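Course assignment 3, question 2. Fill in each field.
Student: A.L.
Task: Predict the tertiary structure for the chain below.
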Amino acid sequence: MNPQLTSILDELYKIDPDLRSHEAELIPLLERLLRHRPDVSPDPAFVSELRTMLLREAAAMKERPARSVASFFSFLASSRALYAVTGAVLGILVTVPVVTSFLGSDGVNIPAPTGERNSSQKALAPFFAPSVREEGDHAFGDLSAIPQGAEATLGRGGGGGDAATMDAPAGMIYPPEGITQLEYVFEGELPALPDGTVDVLRREKKVTGPSLSSVINTFDIGMVNLTSFQGSAVNLLTFMQDRPFGYLVSVMFNDGEIGISPLWEQWPHPEQNCKDEACFQRYRVTLDDVPADDVLIGIAQDFVTAHGIDSAKYGTPEVDKTWRDEYARAEDKTQFYIPESQRVIFPLLIDGKPVYEMGGSKMGISVGVNVREKKVADVWGIKSQTYASSAYDAVADAAAVKEYLENFERYPTEPLAARGLEVKKLTVKLGAPESGYAMFYKQDGNRTDELIIPSLIFPVEEMPEGVPYYSRRTVAVPLAKDMLERGQGGPVFRQ
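Answer field:
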């Protein structure tokens, strides 16, 4: 293979690893482009911003062959992504006649889009445009009150007070045989800790929606003069696709989030007519019904592409296999519930690093694929990526990290021992950590902030026998010093 071609492919895969699955189509195109402009180099913004639109418009050209290449580039020129196209790359596309054939009969097998972005949809783009605004140091207040580990599970520590030590919850119910206490152990060497400060991000959830008058002036709703509520803005916009396998789409401006769910009455539910157990069993999902990972990812990727869901800031999609861990441990697998909807995650990346939820799973766009219908049933986690950034003192002491792990998810076992109940301790071995981010919730009055904090992400390497249920795959240790000042990853309870 031409060394220059190999170099360009390598650069493209670094920008968007998903392009590797299209290598068979990319190579002929790049060879043609190089023959006309051998000095070309790919532009990252071009790849990330235009990839979806190119695929959508290419599919439209295949459906309407009469459309000219000129009209295709008029589309590009009018799009919000024009800023991302370098003169060199755009010049190549315009001057190479073979682009027509690439987008046409001999090109990529592109799924037909379910709809095109119209002018009103374009108007929504600025509401969710990504950005980072820098604020002063410690702008988000004291981080030490953020609930973590067992504290977060029990719902404590978010409203001030002494979160490090507290009374055991009144009325807390313990199983008669006692509980299992997991102890997290990392035996390796920690990587170098950050020097000075770390940048903590707060997602700016609230997005100002369009004014009420701009929405209702086009129709008369009757009964109430909605325009009389001056100064109002739209907070929740919901619409439904009332046809077989249609969707209910909700734009939640107050949370900066978009959700897509199935329109219940337009999706088949054969099990709802069952009147006996045998019928229910017949419609249960079996292991053989679950498609291979590449099939699930392909269905999810096609949906994301067809509907113009911006995945430029997300990593290579992956299938959530948490349920398979539980299935492997289940003694009676015939009674195990296999999810009808398999989740495909497009992991959120910040500075190229993954972001983890407090429960240990990756954050991102979650696409549910219905295994019976082989169709996308729902999409969640489409969020605005607008942040405020503030510097906080970094964790510089490795001992603080190890102490945090030793106390992570430590539950109030002392009251159990006082009652003569057994506290069974099991060791969870952790592997070498990677640098990443973790999301924590901070209660601020009536508002709950989402803070994304640089962290060490420890993978669960070995789970001991005897754990009845466990889905955590990672443990995140935040590297903001405030959060480790208490020296533990969960509350220490008083009797």
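Instructor remarks: The two ends are 71 Å apart (CA to CA). Residues 44-126, 154-171, 487-495 have pLDDT under 50 and may be disordered.
Grade: pending
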